[in-house]
Amino acid sequence: MKELFRIIDANINRASEGIRVLEDIARFYYNNASLTEKLKRLRHEIRKNIMEYLPQCISERNALDDVGLPVSGSLNVDGRNDLFEVIAANFKRCQEALRVIEENLKLLGKYQLSKLYERLRFECYTLEKEYISADWALEKRKKLDTDIYCITAEEYSRGRTNIEVVAQMIEAGIKIIQYREKDKKLIDKYRECVQIREMTQKAGVTFIVNDHVDLAMMIRADGVHIGQDDLPVEKVRELVGERMIIGVSTHSPEQAQKAVAGGADYIGVGPIYRTFTKKDVCQPVGLEYLEYVVQNIDIPFVAIGGIKEHNVLEVKRAGAKCIAMVTEIVGADDIKAKIESIRRRLTW
């Protein structure tokens, strides 16, 4: 039965190494102190509780003659394409190793110790969920990190289709585009969104669908934007899952706080100025509400409503990092030139 200690030794190392990879990503890539602490505690628990049997484990260790090493080298099954795959692989590495430790301790008659490692395995499952949620939250924040948020409005696009307008927005380097069309037939919206999703995905542009949660899900958009009279944020989250961005239009501090509490990923702040783009818009909230959001809301936000090239700098100076424009861009003779001009003004 002494060979069982060799199995336990190998899997203590596997589990600890996997956790260390995850711990360093949480610490140095995500700057997430809470996850770093939890992973560090788990790693120490894994090693601490086997210390009584460490001499037997070390005695049975034989890394040079491990038949698994050449097998691993020949299979080429452990390639990684992105950070998410590294995270997923190392959680599975740890969980599987803990299960192996647990089963072999039972064979050695160490039942209570095996149950302790069972608890650590379940703790690892819980940590995986928390870790992946943190990864998705960071991913969503990165997708929202830009200067100009463009919104379609074919009615004001000088005879151009939404497809033509979106193509020019992408060419100009826009990184977020929202599809907003209130009066079209749903089948026409669907067809346009399918095309725009292909265009934005190819260009690495974040694509948000206004109002229609079902449509956003069907075309696998990056996100959906809802208003105050739409479905509650919490219910939308149940439908779309954790990975999809949810934006919420807000017009007051109370609405902003409610959106944050409900789990919104970003909020729209406005209308800053009087706007005629939307037919059912409320009165302007002015820069005062924007300044409240800057000081009190810790999720991304987009300033919107009546913002033009001549007043965009005023909005930026009030604290807005991301600014939405509709008619100022879709109604321009040369969309690319207009976006370049706005960006020059934003650097003043």
UniProtKB/TrEMBL annotation:
It catalyses: 2-[(2R,5Z)-2-carboxy-4-methylthiazol-5(2H)-ylidene]ethyl phosphate + 4-amino-2-methyl-5-(diphosphooxymethyl)pyrimidine + 2 H(+) = thiamine phosphate + CO2 + diphosphate; 4-methyl-5-(2-phosphooxyethyl)-thiazole + 4-amino-2-methyl-5-(diphosphooxymethyl)pyrimidine + H(+) = thiamine phosphate + diphosphate; 2-(2-carboxy-4-methylthiazol-5-yl)ethyl phosphate + 4-amino-2-methyl-5-(diphosphooxymethyl)pyrimidine + 2 H(+) = thiamine phosphate + CO2 + diphosphate. GO terms for biological process: thiamine biosynthetic process; thiamine diphosphate biosynthetic process. Its cofactor is Mg(2+). InterPro entries: Aldolase_TIM, ThiamineP_synth_sf, ThiamineP_synth_TenI, ThiD2, TMP_synthase, TMP_synthase_cyanobac_bac. One of its GO terms (molecular function) is magnesium ion binding. The keyword Magnesium applies. Residues 6-130 form the ThiD2 domain. Its EC number is 2.5.1.3. Belongs to the thiamine-phosphate synthase family. Condenses 4-methyl-5-(beta-hydroxyethyl)thiazole monophosphate (THZ-P) and 2-methyl-4-amino-5-hydroxymethyl pyrimidine pyrophosphate (HMP-PP) to form thiamine monophosphate (TMP). This is Thiamine-phosphate synthase. It comes from Caldicoprobacter faecalis.
